[in-house]
Amino acid sequence: MNNALLPERIDYVGKLIEIIRNRWKAKSNKSSFADVLDSILLDRREKDLIAEQILSILFSAKFVSLLTEAEIGSNKGFFSDASAKLSFKFLPPVNEPSELRTKFDDIFSDNLDYQWVKAIPDENWIRFLDGIFPEVDPTVDEYIKKEILNSILILAQRAATLGIEPEVVSKIPRVDDLDSPFLGLNREVIFYVEKTLNSSGYTSVSENDYRHILVMISQCNSQISYIYKHKDVFGISLQLTSLVRQLEQYLKRLSQLLELLETNDRDKKWLIITQLLKEFVYAENTKYSLRKHFSTNLQLLTFKVIENTSKTGEHYIASDKSAYWNLFAKAMGGGVIVAFLCGNKTRLYFQHLPIFWEAFFYSLNYSIGFIIILLLGFTLATKQPAMTASTIAANLSNNGENPNWLNTTTQLLIRLIRSQFISLVGNALVAFPVAYGLDLLYFYAFGFHIADPAKAFRLISELNAWESLALPHAALAGVYLMVSGLISGYYENKWIYNKYSLRIVSHPKLIRFFGPVKLARIAGYFERNFGGLAGNFFLGVFLGSTSAIGFTFGLPLDIRHITFASGNFGIAVSSLENHVSTELWINTIIGITCIGIMNVLVSFGLSIAFALKSRNAKFSEVKSLIGNLSWQFFHHGLAFFFPVKTKENSDDITHEAIINRQA
Q1: Are residues 241 and 334 in the same domain?
Q2: Looking at the structure, do residues 328 and 250 belong to the same domain, yes or no?
Q3: Among 252, 281, 255, which Cα is nearest to 104's?
Q4: Residue 323 pLDDT more than 50?
Q5: pTM for the whole thing?
């Protein structure tokens, strides 16, 4: 092999890649740029030159880095890896010139090359590769096989190392003993590689060895599946998520390389090479992508967090009239608590505290109030979308098990909408009169109203949808409502993952103080409610501190929530002793309604986007659902606000049955 001609040949390959790349950027049809590969096969000189240069590149490079690291990730940890990727964006690392990975990056240098490489059909790639490599020089062939064997050995060893990590061992029974499939896989691969290296031409000497390795890989995948299936039992973490993903990638790459060496079917070989080519180009083009890093690593964790809110969200969807009116009663209870929170916050305003302490006590006011609502079993209406969006997404992701998924999901969403409607009505209707009456009692007790006229007019003006920032502030509140739902799921998962219930009931001092029976009840209560308590606490902090943060940075930040808007309006009207014009009444009612709609749209929209992302729901499913929902609204609009029986839902299964099927 004449390596002196290598620079010229790399330039030639670069020109070929550039032709295809330019056709792709010009939005040519697939056949146009895919046919470039086929046209090369018509020119024998061109074909031989490309084949020789590719083999020259392969023969002069080390494969291990590309085969064992591309699209697999590192053991740095989630945040360390993200930090490294960010720094490499500004100051890329120095690549070893002898590595195939470096030469691969030089050839596919455009960050969008993976798009056209993936777009060219596999059959075109197979025909091209088979055409330019009718045969390979035995020396080059042996070198390539040796590099692949080295990579196989390293992949098996890395998989074994990760497979016995304490984080993984704690979730899989008996995985750290000598019968561990990860350790067994490593032993079998070492034996296989040694026998192959000692054979003539590095050819496999026994098919049984290969088959045995496949069995071990299957057992390793079963252990990984165990983690997925039992994540509701022991929770999930960023570290475990990263380890599991790496293990999956190691086992997948190991299977691909083993099959590449063992198969005698040329088309199958080229198909595997094509798949690896597409993976490598994508991996190298996106290796510093933070978006890809967060999306890939957070998906499993997000799934677990969303799943926890789904379990809580089941209680926010009424499936019959009894549950419907029960939600209304709970919402009325929530409205009563919020009315007191409105009065307390207004009095805190008149203390004229420093900005930090004002934010602190506002946050404390909200957080305590929300926790009381939770403890008493009441509801805050606009928290529902964040808790129920994942229930819809769960139904979409399991539609393969339910041929009638479109109708059942539509009916489930209709129940959610009317449940949200009656909860909003219950919150808003009660908050106003209770706040109004609270101000009257305050006046009789102290001789002055909760708010002075200036504050009362300000409270009303802040609810005007046309002349204030009420709607953007309502949207911001919707974001907080969504985030609080995620926080609830996160802390519920954290409680399970860290085995807090078991640690509490096993604590000697707590056992002596409370007794085992009472302590078990306490642990059970917190296991069921810890996520909700944390979510409500943080929601209070978000709502109470936003205005202070906006003031600090000179930004017009604040929040508007429909229930608090109704309560503030009640306090304002009473403080003004009913001297409110009809126009002001109408504008304020419209403003409160718009605030509620914005709260729900933002909270539900963001929550369901996260839920759908975590469950990989298809866009076509969402599109079909929206279409069917629109049809139902125009034909059975009343069902969106009141539980009436229609032909579509009379024979439908109940919401509880849907949830049971998902479980």
Answers
A1: no
A2: no
A3: 281
A4: yes
A5: 0.70
